[in-house]
Amino acid sequence: MEIAYIGYTNKRMKGKSRIVLGGVVVVATIGAFTWYVTKNPEVLDQLAQTSMATIAAIVLLYGCILGALVLVLYASLKFYKRHMSRQENFLLNAYSSLINFFGPGQSGPGFRAAYLKLKHDVKVKQYLFVTLLYYAFYAFFSGILLAFAAFEWWLTFGLLLIIICVCYIILKYFLTKNKNLLNQPLKDLIKPFFIIGAATLLQVLLLWAIYFIELRSLDSSISPGQAATYTGAANFALFVALTPGAIGFREAFLVFSQNLHHISNDIIVAANILDRAVYIVFLGILFLIVIALHANKTLQVKKIKSTVAMNDEQA
């Protein structure tokens, strides 16, 4: 659930530069992790104590997050009176999650945009609008988590007001530039609007639960409030990330916000190593499900990719 390269018709060189930069950040982050763990071997000792029950709970919660994303896509299509089956919706989100993490340049949203355009006649600008709406909810709810345990009430209110204003300006500007984007009465958009909001809130709360479980497995003194602030900071890293799962960017945000959540560097490093490892396990399970359900055939992956490649060459 990361801001990514949506405009699949952009020039190839720009895409390549993003991939190269993302690769450099990933390599640098892995090097930094390795150096830190070498200098602080107690981090590995903490990770070795993680129980299988903890790992299973995190995997299950990541599965629930995928369910929330399925709801977001369902409601997004309702904005334009489009519909897809539950299996197709699940496979599209699952496949997008896989290529977004393992593919070049966070290519999941780009594939999703191309797929919706070719299979369901959802224009790229239409997809971009509902994506911006989703990000607006994501930023708002993440802002609440970041602020409510870390700031005084008036600072919390001010931060949320800034987030609301920024999101409103971006959405209003986008709609002004694309006046015919929404071709149905506003009253028909209320239901999908609230579904996207509720599903995004569920996703953010599930992330809070995941990070709280990870942190508490490493340090039993971590409070729910600290985990909330930690989650908010981690979520905002996704808005500037160029790497799979915001590798490097999330860690930087968490270290820079240490004065807010008061979680030590040792715990931050260990929790992020644990999170990456368990998420890869989750993606491994997802890969087996995608293969079993013949996603390549159902989603016509080769056709979508060839169309994207052709558009890139013509750009």
Task: Report helical residue fraction.
Answer: over 70%
Q: Characterize the overall form.
A: globular
Q: Sketch the major β-sheet.
A: none
Name the structural class.
Answer: mainly alpha
Q: What is the first-to-last residue Cα distance? A: 27 Å
Low-confidence stretches: 1-15
Q: Quote the average pLDDT.
A: 80
For the record, the count of structural domains works out to 1
Helix run count = 14
Strand content: under 5%
Q: What is the rounded Rg?
A: 20 Å
SSE series? HHHHHHHHHHHHHH
Count the E strands.
Answer: 0
Describe the fold and architecture.
The chain has 315 residues and is mostly helical. Helices cover 77% and strands 0% of the residues. The chain has one domain. Helix 2 packs across helix 12 and helix 3 crosses helix 4. It starts with 11 loop residues before the first helix and ends with a helix. The N terminus is likely disordered.
List keywords for this structure.
mainly alpha; disordered N terminus
Gist of the model:
This protein has 315 residues and is mostly helical. It contains 14 helices and no strands.
Draw up the topology in text.
Layout: H1 12-39, H2 42-48, H3 52-78, H4 86-102, H5 108-120, H6 124-148, H7 153-177, H8 190-218, H9 224-237, H10 249-256, H11 258-261, H12 265-292, H13 295-298, H14 301-314
Helix pairs in contact: 2-12, 3-4, 3-8, 3-12, 4-5, 4-12, 5-14, 6-7, 6-8, 6-9, 8-9, 8-12, 9-10
